[in-house]
Design goal:
Layout (H helix, E strand, L loop, with lengths): L1 H13 L9 E4 L2 H6 L3 E3 L2 E5 L2 H7 L4 E5 L3 H9 L3 E4 L2 E5 L4 E2 L2 E2 L4 E7 L2 E6 L3 H5 L5 H6 L1 H12 L4 E5 L6 E3 L2 H7 L4 H8 L6 H15 L2
Length: about 220
């Protein structure tokens, strides 16, 4: 939990490397996000969701609303693709897809590395969840096993890379990270010794890449 708390703080400051100035901007789609060409807002509020809310309803770690503007709040919930508030970037989980899996509602913290974007969310699908699925869930199976798995994964986060053309997500596994670290043999060597693919492990590598490209 300490590692995860630290990761959230780090993701919050990682937005300082974004190319735009610090203000509230809404992006309607992935192309606006890539071009950093969105609509300015002035009344957006970020609320961290509780563990129980995420466990019961799924979705991302943050809820973003417009103060006293229900129409804009509905837009943020259903149609908006991403939001940048001050130095932090968030993507709408409702718009994210990993293969045939969805991430639910609300927003996930994200960061930019060069021309690519990475967001931090719960594992979904076999490729991601297999890195952190508790053994008890596999033994019990059925509704009991599903409940154990959901409870265990509520605190687990992994990174996904957003395809800038399609907006779809790709799980940042060790193999994926190894390819991203091409040209950094010392980091690739350290990566081989890692025992996990969780976000707290992968974040320092993304941060190093972020700094190396100046964003």
């Amino acid at each position: 939990m300490k590692k995860w708390g630290l990761l959230l703080v780090l993701l919050g400051v990682s937005g300082l490397f974004l190319p735009c100035g610090a203000q509230q901007i809404m992006y309607a789609n992935v192309h606006e996000l890539v071009e950093c060409d969105g609509d300015t807002a002035t009344t957006l509020k970020v609320e961290r969701r509780s563990k129980n809310q995420i466990l019961l309803m799924g979705g991302g770690d943050y809820r973003i609303e417009a103060v006293e503007n229900r129409s804009l709040t509905r837009y943020l919930s259903r149609r908006c693709y991403a939001v940048r508030i001050d130095s932090a970037l968030y993507v709408n989980c409702r718009k994210m897809r990993y293969k045939r899996y969805r991430f639910g509602s609300c927003y996930a913290a994200a960061m930019q590395v060069g021309g690519k974007f990475y967001f931090c969310a719960q594992p979904v699908g076999q490729a991601a969840a297999s890195t952190s699925l508790p053994p008890d869930a596999a033994k019990l199976g059925g509704k009991v096993g599903d409940a154990i798995a959901a409870s265990a994964l509520v605190d687990v986060r992994v990174f996904y890379e957003i395809n800038p053309e399609t907006g779809r997500a790709e799980f940042v596994s060790k193999d994926k990270m190894r390819a991203l670290l091409e040209g950094h043999p010392e980091l690739q060597e350290r990566l081989e010794r890692e025992q996990s693919e969780q976000a707290a492990v992968m974040y320092p590598y993304l941060q190093t890449l972020q700094r190396s490209v100046g964003k």
